[in-house]
Structure formats: structure tokens, C-alpha cells
Amino acid sequence: MANTDLLNTPLLWINKYLQSELSDSLGYVTPFFPPSPFNLDDLTEKWMVLNNVNTPVSNGVACTWDRLVKMNKGKFPHIKSEQILYYFYGLGEDSIPTMIQTQEAVLRLLDRADESAEELNAWCANRKIRLDDGSTVDNMFLFHNFKVYQLEETRDIIDFGTARTYGGNKIIIDFEYHQDQDLTNHNWAPEARLSNANKIII
User: Fold this and answer.
1) Residue 177 in contact with residue 141, Cβ under 8 Å?
2) ∠ CA 58-133-126 to the nearest 5 degrees?
3) Is residue 201 situated within a structural domain?
4) Which of 8, 71, 77, 202 is the 20 to 30 A CA-CA neighbour of 39?
């Protein structure tokens, strides 16, 4: 299966890119979590491996994400348009300046339309991603364009009953891409017509 693994998605590559670039520019690890329940307080007691180094996540930023597929308003089926909803949580005592820095870093990385897409494509071309089962996959997507939207609401500081404080902010990213033909069922062929007596019963 390898590169055609169903876990090899455009969002996987965008998340890894953001995680790597935020770590380089801000100096702290940013774990990304799918939209499932998790306990932020427990997260601060855990470690994460980034670039083969165990890194504490008691400070910095954690992120949850959700993938939203947009309706294709054009007639060409192979240009895909999607949105990512990110929710960044600032961890530690400096959560407010941390959130300001993170927000600005994401804007600078991905709010430059086709220039951001070109940078991401170049980054992906030199990398493979290791999946949870140990297999590695290549990038199977060519990104065309990115736009970043900042929602007008900002989470207040939340008291989780600990000495830590948390801040949060939502960011929406619009992007367009097309995928490698191996992911498009390009070799489809119609089944041979069966006689009435030989039709498959389902």
C-alpha cells in the first residue's frame, strides 16, 4: 500500500510542516491532535518526540485540528478545496504572548497564497513521514494556494484547577491542491456485463 495508504492525507503533510516550522521559529514543540477528547492537564505531564529528541510539552502550544472538505463549485474534479480548523492552546505561565507569537508565525507561513504553497511543496519533496505502523510515505499532493482566516473570538484564560494557565485561539486555513493519480482511481474500468443468470446477488 505504502504511498496510497489512506492515512497519507494532505492534512498530514500540512500538520507536520507547521509542527516543524513552529518548533524551529518559536523554540518549543507543538503537538497536533485530531478532534477527539483529551485532557490538557494530562498533556503537560507528557513528553513528545520531535526530531528524535524527547521534548516536554509543559510549555509552548498544543493544537487540535479538524478537516473540512468544501463543495467543489467548478467543473474540474481534480482540484480539491478544503479547510482546516485549528485550535491552538497556549500552555504555561506565558500563554498570552505564546499565542500571539504562534498566531503570527502561522500567518507568516501560510497566508501568502501560492508562495506558501511553493514553500510547502519544496519542504515535502525532501521528506517522508513515518506512520504509526512504522511504514513511511511520500507526499502525494501538490498544493496550489493557501489563505488564513482569524476568527474574531478569542478564548479567555481558563482555570483548569491547576497552577498552569491556558489561552486559546482559532485559525482557519483554506487550501487547494491536487493529488497524485495513484490516489484518483485512474485505472478504473467497467465490469464485464454478466448475463441475467450470472448476476451477483447482494
Assistant:
1) yes
2) 75
3) no
4) 8
- Number of C-alpha atoms within 13 angstroms, CB side, residue 202? 2
Q: Calculate the alpha carbon distances from 50 to 25, 29, 131, 135, 168 in Å.
A: 14, 7, 14, 17, 23
Closest among 143, 188, 181, 122 to 3, alpha carbons compared? 181
Q: What is the C-alpha to C-alpha distance for residues 199 and 183, in angstroms, rounded to an integer? A: 29
State how far the Cα of 95 lies from the Cα of 103, in Å rounded to an integer: 12
- Residue 28's Cβ-side half-sphere holds a number of Cα atoms within 13 Å equal to 20
Residue 136 in domain: yes
pLDDT value at residue 41: 53
Cell of 73: 463549485
DSSP 44: T
Cell of 122: 519544496
Out of 20-34, 130-144, 151-165, 181-195, pick the least confident.
Answer: 151-165
Contact predicate 19/49, CB 8 Å: no
pTM: 0.80
Residue appearing with cell numbers 500567518:
107
The per-residue pLDDT of the chain, averaged, comes to 80
Q: Which domain holds residue 80?
A: 2-186
Measured distance CA(74)–CA(16) in Å, rounded: 29
- The Cα–Cα gap between 48 and 28 comes to 11
Length of the chain: 202
- Give the Cβ contact number of residue 88 at 10 Å: 23
